[in-house]
Amino acid sequence: MVATSRRLFFAFWPDQTIRNGIVERRELLGNPGRRRVPDHNLHMTLLFLGNQPADSMEAIQAVADRLRPPSMSLCLDRFGWFRSAKVLWLGGEAPEQAAPWVEELAEGMRDLGLRFDARPFVPHVTLYRKIHQRPSLPEPPPLLWSPPEIALIESIPSRPYQVLRTWPVE
């Protein structure tokens, strides 16, 4: 059976060293909930597209081909909690070049006629889901991350996220 839609997002996908650093910092939280994000799915979402027609894949990638993601350095130096999403995260300040590039990517997707919930870029890696109350959050040691590429990722229920394609940063 061929899928008619695919659940997609653009993200910074950590290498093993950064992934280990994120996991080490997550350990500082103890065990605040049962819905810990699996290590292999840790990432930083740039633009969440959600379910999109499978036949739009080529056009989505063509938009990303035209845009040159800028090089940026991230400093993940705080834990936080999004009340409405009920997630605990590790994140930091957005580099100034990030938001304009993410908006340009979102505009390209809108030009394709895709419908999605374009939210402002808030640099964070979700660590736990279904956290109903804000726990006491320690201060983690800073983790410096200069992602060498962005990735187009597919989310398939009950499976690890799949990296479909990457683009180097400039």
Summary keywords:
Cyclic Phosphodiesterase, Chain: A; 10 strands; alpha+beta; 170 residues
Structure notes:
- The protein is of the alpha+beta class.
- It has one domain (5-168): Cyclic phosphodiesterase (Cyclic Phosphodiesterase, Chain: A), CATH 3.90.1140.
- Helices cover 21% and strands 32% of the residues.
- A four-stranded antiparallel β-sheet has the order 3-1-9-10, covered by helices on one side. A four-stranded antiparallel β-sheet has the order 2-7-6-5, with helices on one face.
- Strand 5 (78-82) and strand 6 (87-91) form a beta hairpin.
- The mean pLDDT is 94.
How would the blueprint of this fold be written?
Elements: E1 5-12, H1 16-27, E2 35-36, E3 44-53, H2 57-66, E4 74-76, E5 78-82, E6 87-91, H3 98-111, E7 124-129, E8 143-145, E9 149-154, E10 162-168
Antiparallel strand pairs: 1-3, 1-9, 2-7, 4-8, 5-6, 6-7, 9-10
Characterize this entry briefly.
This protein is of the alpha+beta class and 170 residues long. The protein has helices spanning 16-27, 57-66, 98-111; strands at residues 5-12, 35-36, 44-53, 74-76, 78-82, 87-91, 124-129, 143-145, 149-154, 162-168. The protein has a four-stranded antiparallel beta sheet with strand order 3-1-9-10, covered by helices on one side.
